[in-house]
């Protein structure tokens, strides 16, 4: 197999990279399966049977399906609205609309939850400042299944938007124009042309939103745990706090349960994405089917910006206001305005500085490592047969497609014992989070490099080969300079995703090794919402800055590398 | 300088032959064209010469050294060949001078020597003033010349050219053909030129290998290819003219007026396809009867499509138009009998 894959690329490099990938993407899931299916000989006393018998399991599974299903509906409505408006009509300010609409996906879920919590409820500083807060003692409406679904829907709407937009953008305008000239009204065009053509895209979008909601930990943790409303990921988190004897086997079974549900979703999504691409193969050109007159255009723009104001601007304003008051429940005015939370974040809280340090270290380390891996890997894969490339890609996708909790539990199982031979224990150190990040974000780093390497004209390398350059020299002198922008963009995307990551680190952190994501979560759980809000504001600023940086790089990158630029 | 010997070279993709037992003996310093329709295997053959593709059977030798075959596969970087790619393959992140100098850097030449040779190569293609430009700032013809200079700089024994004019407009092609001739004269290198354009091949090459479906159809000079094509397929591919069945002759015969008159009017015995070029057909008062199928104005003259009694079509030139459907008579001064199409 090595021979068939490698061409004239050095064998040792190919072998090294392939085994690293196998180790990172396959061993955790395999280890998890072994644990979940262990002791089956005990019959009804085996972990599998025990967990499946437990009423809490089924209740959490039902909660997961209910909140994820509802979230998917919300995401579909929001995502479809924006995808259709931005791809099929002539609204102006597209770039900013897209950027703002994508923002909720990039903001970490626990920050989203925190900002929405500041928007509602009796202690909301925003409502208090406006003098319209509900009476003390009234309940926080977000601590509910519907609250969870609403926030997850908003967070995953960008995924729907992206999937749907790619099938709408590829839809040839001629198809719509042909329908109009044959006498179809606008409404008939929607029903007879647009909807049937993007139906596959719609199903794929729903599946990806559903899988993401199923794996979401931050939002149900912040909104569900206070109301004792558990979904599968939070049930695992609760079990982990229990430290019972059979705890590890139990959470392994639960993880496998989520894994199976997610896998079904992923398969549905892949199938329909492929079908959507096939239908539109060969057509190019951008459809701008509906050129609106200025009044309708203004109305549509107003609608889009109002939606953005409600789902993005309002919670962020609430978050900012919360970070500027001395305590929750206090209204913001010139007397109460204080920067003490920021001062405290910077000076007094040792854990804050440590968490920033840990997260920056983990994120930049993972980004650098994965960049170094992606370069030779992307290069190798561009030379492989389509079949070999597809199967390797699916392998790399596994840890990214599976919910974060599943990977985290798998890593715990894998590293609970000290490593053989060297007798070093990774459990309870930053290293275990680092390894989990490598596995999880490999696919993010690789995709841009693959896109870019795939676009390279093979003759560029062949010309160098004829000039006498060996494979490694070609990689460094010819391929690297040409894919550098994509490589860097991949690294930035990994950094952006890893620096705020909560799900994996929430289960893998230990004292002294907390990450930013965990810090916000813990501060809020401990009642210190003002400090949590201040940290969240800093995180949001960081996210926006990184996204803008990526946008600026956009023109050196192949299409599709930066999700919010199409 | 060394001659290049292709001995029974084959290439299979799966069980599909792309190149089927190809034999060529190329003299040192020769300018050879591999000519054929797309998918005939000519580019695969070129890539096997360069070493980008392995060969499935046979062998390739350059001056006695075995390049490929018998279990040997010398990698491209050790073959001392140069190549001009269809897309030019200029590295976009290097300047013109860096592109040209890269092969010398691989040979670890001293800086001063390298500068001198880059200067010479750029001078040869008249691009000295653009040495510091990036490839994307150049026009198509200039890029092509940079690619040539990059080939020139290492003084390779063999230069491979893969449809190098395919991306240029017609006006530029003529001047680039001149540049290739000049390049060939200057270096004396063996040049192997892949193209699907017969006019290009005829005007550049001293010998042409015509390929079809992976096989060598004919291997001769352009003049011989035009005048004495071996098979009906080659006759149809090279030049213009018509093929008519003629009785009582065998393949590979040159036929005069008498033989053609006799063979075209008789219809006993087996018929052999005979190529008749338009300049050998003259409209006259008497001779072989034909129907005028079409008369097309071509500027200098009219091009006639004429139908023989057997249904075969001939082509002729005439100074004035004839009416379609009109009957006419022609005299045919020369024909060349062919092997039937496989």
Automatic annotation (TrEMBL), chain A:
Q: Which Pfam families match?
A: BPD_transp_1
Membrane-spanning parts: 60-84, 96-121, 141-164, 202-231, 251-268, 302-325, 355-379, 400-419, 425-446, 482-509, 529-550
State where the protein is found.
Cell inner membrane; Cell membrane
Q: How does it sit in the membrane?
A: Multi-pass membrane protein
Keyword Cell inner membrane assigned: yes
GO BP: any one term: transmembrane transport
Q: Which GO terms describe its cellular component?
A: plasma membrane
PROSITE patterns recorded: ABC_TM1
Sequence ranges assigned to domain ABC transmembrane type-1 in this UniProt record = 61-269, 356-550
Q: Identify the CDD domains for this entry.
A: TM_PBP2
Q: Which InterPro entries match?
A: MetI-like (IPR000515), MetI-like_sf (IPR035906)
Keyword terms of this UniProt record: Cell inner membrane, Cell membrane, Membrane, Transmembrane, Transmembrane helix, Transport
Family (UniProt): Belongs to the binding-protein-dependent transport system permease family.
What protein name applies here?
Iron(III) transport system permease protein
Per the UniProt record, the source organism is Marinobacterium mangrovicola
**According to the entry, what is the taxonomic lineage of the organism?**
Bacteria, Pseudomonadati, Pseudomonadota, Gammaproteobacteria, Oceanospirillales
TrEMBL record, chain B:
Concerning Pfam families, the annotation shows: ABC_tran, TOBE_2
Family matches, as InterPro entries = AAA+_ATPase (IPR003593), ABC_SmlMolc_Importer (IPR050093), ABC_transporter-like_ATP-bd (IPR003439), ABC_transporter-like_CS (IPR017871), Mo/tungstate-bd_C_term_dom (IPR008995), P-loop_NTPase (IPR027417), Transp-assoc_OB_typ2 (IPR013611)
GO annotations of cellular component type? ATP-binding cassette (ABC) transporter complex
One GO MF term attached to the UniProt entry:
ABC-type transporter activity
| Domain of life assignment | Bacteria
Q: Report keywords, A-Z.
A: ATP-binding, Nucleotide-binding, Transport
Pinpoint the ABC transporter domain residues: 4-238
Q: Which Gene3D superfamilies match?
A: P-loop containing nucleotide triphosphate hydrolases
Write down what this protein is called.
Carbohydrate ABC transporter ATP-binding protein (CUT1 family)
